[in-house]
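C-alpha cells help. One example:
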Amino acid sequence: MARIAGVNLPNGKHVEIALTYIYGIGRSTSQNILDAVKIEKTRKIETLSETELDLIRDKIKEFIVEGDLRRLITGNIKRLQEIRCYRGIRHQKRLPVRGQNTKRNSRTRKGKSIAIAGKKK
C-alpha cells in the first residue's frame, strides 16, 4: 500500500483512479500528473517502484492538497461569514449557497424533513 500526501492508496486500483483518493486531486489532475512523470494510467499501484512513487510525490507537491486545501476552504467560508455577505449567511443557515431552489429540493443540505404536528384537519 503506497502512501502519498498522507493518504494510503489502495493496491488493486489503477494509478489514475488511486490518485483521486487524495483530497484536491480529481481525474483530470491525476491524468496530468501521470503524463508529466510518464507513467501509464492503467498500471496498478502495487506495480510502481519507489522511484516512480517519488516522482509522483514530487509532482503532487506543486498542488495544494489534503489538510492545506481543507484549511484554505474553511478559511474562505469563515471570511464570507464574518463579512456577513449573502453567501456567508447561507453557509451559516446551512442552506444552498449557489442559487438552488429550496421549496421542494435541497434535502441534502437541509437534512431530513420534519413533519408539522396538527396540520391535518
Notes: The first helix runs from residue 15 to 18. The helical segments are 15-18, 27-37, 50-60, 66-82, 86-92, 107-110. The radius of gyration is 21 Å. The chain has a mean pLDDT of 92.
